[in-house]
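Researcher: Can you fold this with zinc ion in place?
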Amino acid sequence: MEYAEARSKFFVSLAKEQGSWLARCEVCRRRAATDVHHIRGREGDLLVNPAFFLGVCRRCHDRIEHAPQWAASQGYTMTRNRIPEEEPCPEVGRTSSG
Ligand SMILES: [Zn+2]
């Protein structure tokens, strides 16, 4: 799906969810949602996956971008599980005896 399509469908369903004709910002709940914030980033399928969209106004979007710690504490940003660059091999305690 194209991002533009995913985005507009998301705003329509968000408005419906909010019982309004206009999607409101999910952060301040006052201004119109004009932006999509990607809770888990925009890599690959995440770009078009509405499960990880947050409808926000421009001001709240800026706030999220500029205050990542606050955003994470509010659940507006979720970092993916970091893959350790070099995980030491778990020690093999037993040798196969069969
Ligand atoms: Zn807002």
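Model: Folded with zinc ion in place. The two ends are 52 Å apart (CA to CA).
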